[in-house]
Each structure stands twice: as C-alpha cells, then as structure tokens.
Amino acid sequence: MEIIRARHSGFCFGVNRAIDMAFSEAEKKERKGRLFTCGYLIHNKDVVKRLESMGVTMIGSLDEAEEGDTVIVRSHGEPREFYEKAAAKGIHLIDTTCVFVKKIHDIVLKAHEEGVPVVVIGDREHQEVKATNGWCGYSAHVIGNEAEAEAEAVSLKGSRPMIVCQTTIKEELLKDVLNVFDSAGIDYDIHNTICNATRERQESCAELAAQVDAMIVIGDEHSSN
Predict the structure, then answer these.
(1) What's the whole-model pTM score?
(2) Matching CATH topology for 13-97 and 100-197?
(3) Are 71 and 37 in contact (CB under 8 A)?
(4) How confident is the model at residue 112 (pLDDT cuts 50, 70, 90)?
(5) Has 128 been annotated as catalytic?
(6) Pick the catalytic residue: 67, 128, 152, 200?
(7) What was the pLDDT predicted at 89?
(8) pLDDT band at residue 149 under the 50/70/90 scheme
C-alpha cells in the first residue's frame, strides 16, 4: 500500500503561534493569579487537553475570572468589548489572536468608524466571525451562502459596502457572493482575507483526492480548516 502525503498540511502559522504562546505562559513557574483560556484556544481537543494537564482551565467568559488572573485570548479572536472588560476588571491578557484575523478587525473597525457598511462572508456561528462582528458594533451583514447574499443584497442596494472574509472559508463561497452582488449592481470594496494557508491546504486536498483511492484527513472535526 502506497501512502501519499499532501503538499501542504499541519497547523498554520497563526495556530502554531497561539500554541507556542500558550504553552510558554503555562510553563512559567511564578504567577500571582490563575491562568485560563476563554473558550477553545484552537479547534483541537488534544491541544486543549495538554493545556489542562498543565493547569490551564478553560472558562466560558471573563465573568469567571477575577482581578489578577491571566486569560489567554484564543487564536480566533474576541470582540472589542472583551478587551475593555478585561481592562476594567484588572485581568491580564495573553493575546494569541492570529495576526491575519487581527488585520480583519482593524479593517472593519476603520470602515465602521467611517460609516461604511461591513459585509463578513463566513459562518455566523464561528468564533472568528463573532469576534470580527464585535469590532464594527455588531452591525456586519454576515453572509454564509448564496441565499443569504441575495437577501442582504436588497438591504445593501445603493450603498458601497466593504467586504472581508472569514479566513477559513472556501474560495467558491466568496465567488458566489460576489456574483450575487455583481448581478444586483452593488458596488463594493473587497478585502480577500481568506488565509493563504487555507487556500494551500484546500488545493492540496483536491490534488491528492484526484490521485488516490481513499483519503484520510487528520484533525479535529470542529475545525473549519
């Protein structure tokens, strides 16, 4: 039996960075308060279990932390008020938000402050999208399929929205949404923020699938990648 490995695989830069930062913090010998992650650091149960074995507890919100505690911000990011609340409560943050996700936050914040409608193409239930929406006052038009694009196109008629993408969506979804907007005559500014690592892994999967009889994907079922 021949085993072929895809050209691109493994954790992306952002996830590797988050893991390195989290384990580095967990290994520190002296700390005044407790150490938490808020939600899943990354969508990988094995990594979460390793952190738990090192004394890192996962909480659901900052309400479970107190002054002097340290909270590791997950790689998918958090909304703006998360940081404001942490500062107000005296909670120290270790921010592992992916730098590419943080760039999206900056884009939508600027657009929101300038009064420009924001469109986020992605899964509205995904933490990255929820966090991004929190940087434009939760005013984003979140689109996850063609039907939603057609519905949002009606309300966006006559405006010039700024479009960003969840970093892990398929390129086809972006194309489908833009086709709907083009057909509706909507002008827009587009920031294609799909991560290069995501593109590379999707392309590698397609290439590999065409060469083999069976294909195995190793990873967590909750990961959008």
Answers:
(1) 0.85
(2) no
(3) yes
(4) very high
(5) yes
(6) 128
(7) 97
(8) very high
Q: Write down the domain spans for the chain.
A: 13-97, 100-197
The rounded mean pLDDT for the chain is 92
**Sign, CA torsion 182/185/186/190:** positive
Q: What percent of the chain has pLDDT over 70?
A: 97
Pick the CATH number of 13-97 from 3.40.50.11270, 1.10.1040.10, 1.20.120.160, 3.40.50.2300: 3.40.50.11270
| Second CATH level (architecture) for the domain 100-197 | 3-Layer(aba) Sandwich (3.40)
